[in-house]
Amino acid sequence: MLMRPEYRNKVDPKYKKKIEQIVRKSGGKAEDEEEMTSPCPYCQFELTESELVCPSCRNNIPYCIATGRHVVRTNMTSCPRCDFPALYSEMQRFLEAEAACPMCSEKVNPDDLGVVKNPDKYLPGPT
Prior knowledge:
It is found in: Cytoplasm, Cytoskeleton, Cilium basal body. This protein is α+β, with helices and mostly antiparallel strands.
């Protein structure tokens, strides 16, 4: 994202080279590995985890604040501070390493997370 033309000039030169190296290294891996799929939380259509618009029902899918992948109904949680949605298992893993929400930067205890019982709250109606 930072290396997109609209942001590239705003990156501090001392970090620019390192970011470019990371982007180049990860670019090679992405071509070799097939991306995993998971169901759309609206219609259950299997789509790649990075897609945020379902090609079947055309709904915009909320993304996980810990990974950037789309959320799924059966593994959804939210930050207890800012209420942004996340994948429960990934947010747990993230908080064990970082101890703060990636969205609001507030300290969050992994034990405070729970699987959302009613995911419809985070799934706005059809677009």
